Amino acid sequence: MTLAVRGLTAGYGRREVVRQVDLDVAAGEVVVLAGPNGCGKTTLLRTITHVVRPAAGVVLLDGADVGAMGTAERARHIAVVAQSASLPEGMRAFDVVLMGRTPHLRLFGAEGPADVAAVRDAMGRTDCWHLRARLVDELSGGERQRVVLARALAQAPRLLLLDEPTAHLDLTHQLETLSLVRRLAQSDGIAVLAVVHDLALAAAFSDRIALMASGALIAAGPPASVLTPELIRRAFGVAVRVVGDPMTGRPLVLPDYDALTAAGRRRAGATIEVTS
Amino acid sequence: MIGIERLRAAHASRRAEPAPLTWYALAPTIALAATGTVAVIVVAMCLGTTRISPATTLGVLGDHLLGVSAGSHSASADAIVWEIRAPRVLLAALVGATLAFAGAAYQAIFRNPLAEPYIMGVAAGASVGATLVIVSPLAITAGVLSPLPPAAFAGALIAVSLAYGLARVGTTVPSASLILSGVAVSSVGTSLVTYLMLAYNTRTLAILNWILGSFNTASWTKVAIASPYALVAFAVILPFGRVLNVLQLDETEARHLGVDVDRVRLIVLVAASLATAAAVAVSGLIGFVGLIVPHAVRLVWGPDYRRVLPLAAFCGASFLVLMDLIARSADATFELPIGVVTALIGAPCFLLLLRRQGRAIEVRP
Q1: Region of A205 on the Ramachandran plot (φ > 0 left; ψ -120 to 50 alpha; else beta)
Q2: CA distances (Å), origin B170, targets A45, B174, B269
Q3: Distance, in angstroms, between B167 CA and closest chain A CA?
Q4: Rounded distance, CA A80 to CA A163, Å?
Q5: Which of A32, A58, B134, B296 is the most exposed place for a label (fewest CB within 10 A)?
Q6: The whole model's pTM is what?
Q7: Could you say which of B16, B20, B248 has the minimum Cβ distance to residue A88?
Q8: Which helix or strand (DSSP H or E) is residue A211 part of?
Q9: What is the CATH number of the domain that holds B278?
């Protein structure tokens, strides 16, 4: 067991955004965190890293309390790929990935050959070593994402948190990024917790899905057990049909457009609305 | 502007095989910048209303610094170089280095290209302190006993502490609130000074003179007052170069990489503000240097703060020494305010550099 979240409650000021969350992610496992916008997914990730202080509950990494760790120690165990990672312009991809070594260096220390080796390894595995001398402002969206992922790997984390790693990416790069994450989890035994909005991608690339709604976890388990019409209606408030992929049998979630438009017709009485 | 193409070529050649930036990779550039700055300083000591040959100037300097009697030079040459020009040129170098260095540090911790050394209210606070002394019945004694520098210094520190205290939200100090509270404190200070100027209109010119900044009251004492703060700030901030690079990511990302953002920011802010306050106290307000020199350095040598910080100090020193040379020799009858010269000459040079680099400076939200 790598990550164990117990009774985690957190918020901003008086507003509770995450309520009583219990969640486990094992080494080598990919867990997708799904749920509607504003349900507390990002806050949950931030509370796990203690950037947001929990109001109650604990986060344990192999039994050690994350809250008791210093900023640098925490960063040696947990790496985060943010929703839209900022890459300072004028820096080479190599320099950006080298920043991943920060928690392993002393405050005023300089990077050494071991750090270069770690960078080379991380960039090799995310297939971006050939981009090392390029300036980050010249990279495409998919290339940037690989560089940011390499930076996270250079941290040598045991837990990898991804906040919508596929946002702003086209289909090819979405698949590429998630299958890469999947491979890394297995080969390195990293525990992965990823926020993914696309439920088909979530079903294809995760071992388990944790479904959140208004701050609480309403279900967690294998994709087929979580992606049911009832649970999705509870989380998202929309009617869906769940069908099996004709080839693999994996669950596919299809919004019930007819129900949506019929409801829309009843409410508005006139125009047909299809909201995504 | 001559060497820019070559500098760019050198910059591009770093693309060949990336490696971590080490001190020995930095050394040649820094040594070159240091040599250039020393050369500018010596040339500025030779020039003025009375021209003195480089040999004589070096002889006088050798006399006083090394105690070697380097041949014969007249007593008047000795007085001009050692008593008048040397403190003035060195003070300009010190203030220029401090402002450019502090500007680079502020831009780093605020991740904001518009940040400059006066952004936290240093300038406004110092002006209030200095203005209160000027309008007070205290006789303004010149030289060592002048209450102006300590009053300006105290005003600057009060303003910065006020701005920092007001920006605190719980346990964190967000950079946007810091900038905004700095702006608010500055405008309070500025309006106080304006009020005092109008209320004591016989002293208006004296106040204006101080605000515009000048090195014509430079002395060895002022050099001695300001240099410890500058040296401490350099010593404290320079080792943070690599960490400041990480801070260029967003705040949360820097935390996720293990950087204690609030602590780093507080240390750098205190060191840079103390040095700026000391510089302002001995020279008045000299705008532009702290904003533009770091950008010019970044345009030529790239964004790595391990390179930007030391080079900003050397370039700031050379720049302000040259601008002061122009201020004191452009017009024989009266001295131009240094702040006017820095903006008038510095701005077009910077714009030229910006255009030749063909890059835009990005303002992040």
Answers
A1: alpha
A2: 21, 10, 19
A3: 17
A4: 8
A5: A58
A6: 0.85
A7: B248
A8: strand A208-213
A9: 1.10.3470.10
Mutate to test the interface with B, among A97, A107, A116, A134 (most CBs of B within 10 A): A107
Q: What is the pLDDT of residues A195-226, one digit of tens each?
A: 999 998 999 999 999 999 999 999 999 999 99
In a domain, B15, yes or no: no
Q: Which of B296, B337, B328, B302 is nearest to B315 (CA)?
A: B296
Q: Does residue B149 lie in a domain region?
A: yes
Q: Could you please state the CATH topology (level 3) that the domain comprising A3-222 is classified under.
A: Rossmann fold (3.40.50)
| pLDDT tens-digit map of A61-71 | 999 999 999 99
Domain ranges in chain A are: 3-222
Q: Report if residue B24 sits inside a domain.
A: no
Q: Is B171 exposed, middle or buried (0-12, 13-18, 19+ CB in 10 A)?
A: exposed
For every residue of B250-313, DSSP letters joined together read -HHHHHHTT--HHHHHHHHHHHHHHHHHHHHHHH----SHHHHHHHHHHHHH-S-HHHHHHHHH
Q: Chain A: residue nearest B18 by CA?
A: A133
Q: Which residues of chain B make contact with A102, given a CB cutoff of 8 A?
A: 242-243, 246, 257-259
CB atoms within 10 A of CB B340: 16
Window A:51-80, CB contacts with B under 8 Å: 51, 71-76, 78-80
Domain count, chain B: 1
Residue-wise pLDDT for B242-277, tens only, equals: 999 999 988 889 999 999 998 999 899 889 988 998
Q: What is the mean pLDDT of chain A?
A: 88
Cβ atoms of B43 and B324 within 8 Å: the answer is no
Q: Is residue B12 part of a domain?
A: no
Q: What pLDDT band is residue B10 in, cutting at 50, 70 and 90?
A: low
Distance CA A86, CA A104 (A): 21
Burial of B2 (0-12, 13-18, 19+ CB in 10 A): exposed
> In the sheet where A216-221 sits, what is the strand order?
A78-81, A159-163, A191-195, A30-34, A208-213, A216-221
- ipTM for the assembly: 0.86
- Put simply, whether A130 touches B (Cβ < 8 Å) is no
Q: Which residues of A56-95 are buried (b: 16+ CB within 10 A; e: fewer)?
A: ebebbbeeeebeebebbebbbbbbbbbeebbbbbbbbbbb
